[in-house]
Amino acid sequence: MSGISLDWKHRILAAHERIRSIVLETPVVSSSQLSRHFSPLVKFKLENQQRTGSFKFRGAANSLSMLTAEQARAGVLTSSTGNHGLAVATAARTLGVRADVYVSPLVSPLKLEAIRNG
Question: How many CB atoms lie within 10 A of CB 70?
């Protein structure tokens, strides 16, 4: 992590400790095909294999993990018709926090069901 200030390193490590028990450790893979055209080696972090299918679960889990007991009892509110709503709903259910996710009437039925099931 060269080039990152000590404060940021501390914050990143603290976030890692907060969420490590509920997020999946997703793989990093190299792409020899793309690496032929770009330098240095091209790698992909496969966050599509995360619990909700996107990296947004990490941020939601971290944010909800930092709630005070009073804030957690009050619950959280968000608005999303996509991955953010699903991430908040899943993190909230995992951490025992009530979450209200407001969605557009245009949200896909599959995404709405996933958000409801968190």
Answer: 7
